[in-house]
Each structure stands twice: as structure tokens, then as C-alpha cells.
Amino acid sequence: MLKAAVLDGNLPKSPCVWIRLPKIEPDAVVPIRTDVVQQLADTIWRPYRAMVVFAAATGMRSSELRGLTWDRVDFDTSMVSIDRQLIGYSSTEPTWGPPKTASSRRRIHIGSSTMQLLKDLHERTHGPGGIIFHSDGRAITRHTAGEAWRHVREKIKGVGTGWRELRHYHASQLIAGGMSVVAFAHRLGHKDARETLKTYAHLWPSDDTRAAALTDGLVRMNAHELPMDDETSQH
Asked: Domain spanning 34-203: which superfamily?
């Protein structure tokens, strides 16, 4: 605004010089518990339950989930290709766009239970454009997905603020399972490991304990040769 005032000749120069805005520190991610996710899957409006389960198992973004189509599923290799996201507002004529970033283009492996869920869904009615997760034949828009989450949030304590909570939950399970940071970054579609650590580094609290356990006791002191107090004082 002040730059515009200078350009318009209302100010000789802008007073905003060498001003450093305070750094905004994002709140640390606190993943929801598995029992809460299960309660969410059991309680949310029925058309959204399969999407909750799939989100918890894959860590996909809401827009990626809602835009996932059957032609992106390889049943032979249990792989899902993620190369676009749902961007439109129409539930009858879905519109797709490029993924969030170039790194968001990826193929991820799907476990047997989750693949069985897809096989069961494949036998039922498909959504417009071959969309997998839909509500009575209509695409799930960002608005309707948010409405469904807000509705269940009133019933379940600690469910979190939105669909991104399931992405954080998935991330926490990967970390607990000891997945490498590089593989982790690929699965979630992060630019690189730095982006992963920037968001989730605090969820690796046991690494120092694990490091101690890996090296503890490998080299030992002979109990019969421990230095005595008087010997220690002589050196």
C-alpha cells in the first residue's frame, strides 16, 4: 500500500525500510491415535468411510484421494499412480489438475487389506469419470469433504481439524515402523527429505535411545580390571 502511495506521488518515500517481520513458527504436528482413526471410520457419514480407511493407509492428500480414478490403480502389482488431483467444484462434472508439486507425482504400494477394499469398491457403482471415492455417484468436493469432517468432529474428541490429520497419522506410523526418511518423502510426495524433517522431525524421539542400544555393550571392560580409587588417584 505504501509502495502504491509512493508511485502515486502521495509520499516522497516509503517509511517501511529494513523492517523484518517476526518469523511464524508452525505448530508441531500431533498425530491422532489409531483408536480415534478407527472411531472416525466407524462414525463419519457412510460414503466417506472407505476414504478414511484409504487415507490412513496411504497418506494421500484429500484432493488426491477425491480425484483418484480406477485407471490409476494397478491390481496386478498393488500400486497406485498419483499424477493429478481434483480441483473443480462440480460434483457431477469433476475437473482434474496437476498435483500440488512436481514431487507429488508418484507411485505407491498398497497393502493387501487396502487392495481388498479397492476390489470390493470396484464391484460397486463408480463415480463420474471413474472416480473411486464418491457419494451416491457424485464426486466429493472439497466443500462436502470438509462438511463431513466438521460433522464428525462434533461427535469425536481429538479427531483434529480436517482430512490432513489422516496424512499426519499415516506419517506417524511410517516413522514408528522405522521407514527411511528418503522412502518416507517419496511416499508422501515431499520435495525431499528436508521437507519431511521440517514437518515431522519431532516425531523421531526414540532415535537417540535406539542409537544407544545399537552400540551399548559392544566393547566391554573386564570386571576384574576395573581401576580402584587409589589407583585412579595415582595417575
From this structure: Intergrase catalytic core (1.10.443.10)
d(CA 78, CA 109): 6
Which residue ranges make up each domain of the chain? Answer: 34-203
CA 48 → CA 37, 41, 83, 170, 181, distances in Å?
A: 13, 8, 22, 17, 30
Encode burial over 24-38: b for 16+ CB neighbours within 10 A, e otherwise.
Answer: eeeeebebbeeebbe
Q: Rounded to whole angstroms, how far apart are CA atoms 210 and 178?
A: 11
* pTM: predicted TM-score of the whole model, two decimal places: 0.79
Distance CA 19, CA 97 (A): 38
Q: What's the helix, strand, coil split of the chain in %, to 5?
A: 50, 10, 45
Residue 79 Ramachandran class (φ > 0 left, ψ -120 to 50 alpha, else beta): beta
d(CA 172, CA 163): 15
> What is the Cα–Cα distance from 43 to 58, expressed in whole angstroms?
20
Q: Which three cell numbers stand for residue 93?
A: 462434472
Q: Are 85 and 63 in contact (CB under 8 A)?
A: yes
Q: Tens of pLDDT along 184-201? A: 999 999 999 899 999 998
